[in-house]
Amino acid sequence: MKIKLFFLSFSICFLISKAQNIPMYVGTYTDGFSEGIYKFDFNLKTGGLSNLQLAIATENPSFIAYAPNKKYLYAVSESLGGTVSSFKIQENGLLKFLNKVSSNGTGPCHISLNKQGNKAVVSNYRGGSAAVYNISRDGKLNDASQVFEYNTTDKVSHAHSAQFFKDELYIADLGMNTVYHYKLKNNNYELTTTSIFKTTENPGPRHFALTRNGQFIYIINELSGSITSVKKTDSGFEQIDFDSTLEDTYEGKNACADIHLSKNELYLYGSNRGENSIAVFKRNKFDGTIEKIQTMPVHGDWPRNFTLDPSGKFLLVANQKSQNITIFSIDASTGTLTFLHDVKAPRPVCLLF
Questions:
Q1: Which residues is 184 bridged to in the sheet?
Q2: Which of 90, 117, 312, 333 has the largest count of CB atoms under 10 Å?
Q3: Is 17 helix (H, G, I), strand (E, B) or coil?
């Protein structure tokens, strides 16, 4: 009887432990230290990362994204020519290659999917273009259905990120200092606004975060170390705030990278490469303005990308140059961060839950 109870207790503990762990994929640069996309087990209770595995060998998967059903994973490849690939997620969490298509521009640096999982959009940094793809039911990418070219005779585009929102599409262009706005009409995206904010400066919009209702957009500017806050109105868009991500005393070089809202949308986080920090902002949920409340060192070098875990209790940072991932707990009442620990990872540049 005691033996049966022991095995029953052991089985229950094993199942609880397994249920607490979820996969986290890591996109990397494969320049001698890395081989492709990696997978960790993430513990939702402790914030621990363990069991590092190579999910699939592939060249320079610098940005990765899930299908909404999490049966497929997509990655851009900053290889010569520029490509984007689709993978099937197997039962063991490793990836199986499905197909590869052209990114329609050099230096693809970002990919995202719509909520239906039938469209993807890729941003080509060096090529100055963005491409929209239809996705088949088997997860494979079709050739691009639309390609937007942004270079002009007197300006060089650096399309850096894009996101769908319902029947809309936003594309941030660091080179042109703008965020384009498109609407879906007759299955094609048509440009409705050449810029959702106005500037005569050179902020370099890179990534952005949208509230769930789509009313507010927060754009992190790589070159100026700042966040531009924009409100969507009945007549278009209105800039409502502009805030530095840096400490007043910081005087070195800096390049902002990533930005995310907390799960409850009360806090906003942005990464600084140079100051090597996460800037934490408290967000006014009514008027959308933000106020900086913390600068947290990332305990690493060059935080290119970061993410919040599905529970909203932890924030994880991919430090490209120091080759480590740092884990922070998030205070539920204040949104502030506390450093917990870090793990080594080969050239991490994108984290995906």
A1: 189
A2: 117
A3: helix
pLDDT by residue (tens digit) across 269-304? 999 999 999 999 999 999 999 999 999 999 999 999
CA distance 112 to 65: 6
Q: How confident is the model at residue 71 (pLDDT cuts 50, 70, 90)?
A: very high
Report how far residue 141's alpha carbon sits from residue 15's, in angstroms, rounded to the nearest whole number: 36
Instruction: Look up residue 306 and give its two tokens.
Output: 């970061």
Per-residue confidence (pLDDT) for residue 14, from 0 to 100: 47
* Residue at 227: amino acid letter: I
pLDDT recorded at residue 11:
47
**Would you tell me which CATH number, out of the four given (2.130.10.10, 1.10.10.410, 3.40.50.300, 3.30.457.10), belongs to the domain 2-352?**
2.130.10.10
Which residue in 214, 213, 212, 171 sits closest to 190, CA to CA?
171
Predicted confidence at residue 3, as pLDDT, reads 58
- Secondary structure class of 295 (helix, strand, coil): strand
Are 177 and 205 in contact, with CB atoms under 8 Å apart?
A: yes
Query: Cα–Cα distance between 234 and 286 in angstroms, integer?
Result: 17
- How many CB atoms lie under 10 A from the CB of residue 141? 23
Contact 315, 307 (CB under 8 A): yes
| Contacts of 188 by beta carbon, 8 Å cutoff, 6+ apart | 145, 146
- The answer to whether 144 touches 133, Cβ cutoff 8 Å, is yes
Q: Would you kindly state where each structural domain of the chain is located, as residue ranges?
A: 2-352
pLDDT for 119 equals: 98
Which residues does residue 272 pair with via DSSP β-bridges, in sequence order? 256, 277
